[in-house]
Amino acid sequence: MVLVASLVAIYWQATKSPLPPMPTREWYYDLNSRQLFPGPVGQTPPIAAPSGSATDGSPAGVRARVFTCGKCSQSERFIGYLETYSSEMKQRRQAMEERVRAPQPAGPDPSLTMEVIMLETDLRQGLASLVKRPEDAAWVPIKSPEGQQIVQAAHRRCGANAVAKPCSPRK
Q1: For the chain, N or C: smaller number of CB within 10 Å?
Q2: What span, in angstroms and rounded, lies between the C-alpha atoms of 23 and 95?
Q3: Is residue 34 within 8 Å of residue 134, measured between CB atoms?
Q4: φ, ψ of residue 15 in degrees (nearest 5)
Q5: What's the CA gap between 26 and 5, in Å, rounded?
Q6: Domain boundaries in the chain?
Q7: d(Cα 128, Cα 120) in Å, to the nearest integer?
Q8: Strand extents, DSSP E, 10-156
Q9: Can you give the pTM of this predicted structure?
Q10: In this structure, what are the phi and psi dihedrals at residue 39, rounded to the nearest 5 degrees?
Q11: Cβ neighbours of residue 152 under 8 Å, at least 6 residues apart?
Q12: Which 3 state secondary structure label does DSSP give 90?
């Protein structure tokens, strides 16, 4: 009996992943209603929002970076900052994604490889991503001193010795 229980325990430990599953949904923020809404991971904001378009006709949905100092319940989570892309960067990213998905009958396209490298470099350098707090009027580049302050403040909101934990929507 002890042997069977030991084998079951060993099997359970071996098949149990030490990492939580990757989220398939993330939070977005409706700039019109000022409310969070869930959506699939990987959309390039701005995206369509439940309330419709913004006053200028553009989509009113932006990515919301949501955190908690405890549990991800509605009462304990908070919006650390909002994130979107410039219209130019959104167009570049969507065009590149379409080219990547298109069949390549003659083999890899060197210009596509270079375009992917350039886009990824811009994304890594923060040239494309814009951030702000929900109460701010202006968007700033994430890698700018102002953008870094916004991001760091969100992560330090739980205190000097704690880091805010990201929250994803439940299914």
Answers
A1: N
A2: 25
A3: yes
A4: -95, -10
A5: 39
A6: 23-85+131-171, 87-127
A7: 10
A8: 25-30, 35-40, 61-68, 77-85, 129-132, 140-141
A9: 0.73
A10: -160, 170
A11: none
A12: helix
Closest CA to 45 of 118, 110, 113, 142: 142
- pLDDT, one tens digit for every residue, the chain (171 residues): 555 555 555 555 655 656 667 778 999 999 999 999 999 998 889 999 999 999 889 899 999 999 999 999 999 999 999 999 887 777 777 777 776 677 766 666 666 565 666 656 655 555 578 999 999 999 999 889 999 999 999 999 998 888 899 999 986
Closest CA to 88 of 129, 146, 138: 129
Q: What is d(CA 114, CA 109) in angstroms, rounded to the nearest whole number? A: 9
Cα 105 from chain centre? 33
Q: What gap in Å lies between CA 155 and CA 162, rounded to an integer?
A: 9
CB 156 within 8 A of CB 150: no
Q: How far apart are CA 169 and CA 24, in angstroms?
A: 9
Length of the chain equals: 171
CA atoms within 13 A on the CB side of 158: 17
Instruction: Name which of 94, 106, 80 is nearest 42 in CA terms.
Output: 94
